[in-house]
Design goal:
The structure is a homodimer of 122-residue chains. By secondary structure, chain A is mostly helical. The first copy, chain A, has a single domain, classed as Winged helix-like DNA-binding domain superfamily/Winged helix DNA-binding domain (Arc Repressor Mutant, subunit A). Chain A is built from seven helices and three strands, in the order ααβααββααα. Chain A has a three-stranded antiparallel beta sheet with strand order 1-3-2. The longest helix of chain A is centred in the C-terminal third of the chain and has 19 residues. The relative contact order of chain A is 0.20. At the A-B interface, helix 1 and helix 5 of A face helix 1 and helix 5 of B. The first copy, chain A, binds a DNA duplex (30 and 30 nucleotides) through helix 4.
DNA sequence: CCTGTGCATGCCGATTGACGTATATTCTCT
DNA sequence: AGAGAATATACGTCAATCGGCATGCACAGG
């Protein structure tokens, strides 16, 4: 894993929000849409960007693609994700995103609108 | 200080080497030229890029511009610089750069070729 | 087999970034 | 004032990126 690639991935606001959210657990694209309030194509492309550089993994689950951070991230990545987690604590946008996620989680637990309850189990 | 700006600054190899070197202490442009073996204009532009985003400071010293990391970096910056310092330990390019710097330092201490011995005092 | 849903990709235009060449700026020394 | 050294900037070029629109692909259910 290249340090440059990591920084390239993190230097976009949307990608940063995505990665930050994935720190809370796996998510599928429709969740990102709802939480970030961004169009599907934008999210999808950023996820693709992250995927080709190894910052996220994905797994198909029926109709849905469930994205997550790598199970065993490289040292540099793990270090930087921890750093990001720490730095983002104070950012209002990140806090709002996570708040939306928390609000979404129980709803999905009982009746998932998109079938990926497992994605939010974490 | 914006997280995005920090990551934008760090997502270029040359800038990463510059920042990494500044972790060892202030340096002037000619030192970067010698250590990085890159043309003056390239280094100067990247320094300018870093300066406008607040990642480095500079101070004129006669004919020379002495660059350094900010005296009191913002929390996010300090955190990320520490992270970088840690991640870069293993990178052969960074190690070589620092080795060149160490080799340069004593030479400058006795007879500085460009007058900025003070820059390497640290 | 057909349809709908979730997601990805191709194409376009606009912006930004990286690099090089040439030139300007700022200072020192004489 | 003039020359030279260290550094910065202007301009052009090429590549990468970002966003949107339209379309393609994969799967589920009837």
């Amino acid at each position: 894993m290249d340090l440059i690639s990591i920084y390239e991935c993190l230097c976009d606001r949307t990608r940063l929000r995505i990665v930050q959210l994935l720190g809370e657990g796996p998510l599928c694209v429709c969740h990102f849409q709802e939480i970030l309030r961004e169009p599907q194509v934008k999210i999808s492309k950023h996820l693709s960007y992250l995927r080709t550089r190894g910052l996220v993994q994905c797994e198909r689950q029926g109709n849905w693609m469930v994205y997550s951070l790598p199970a065993k991230p490289a040292r540099e990545l793990a270090r930087n994700l921890a750093c990001l987690q720490d730095c983002a604590q104070e950012d209002p946008v990140f806090r709002r995103d996570v708040a939306r996620l928390k609000k979404l989680t129980p709803k999905l637990a009982e009746s998932s609108p998109c079938g990926c309850t497992t994605a939010v189990r974490a």
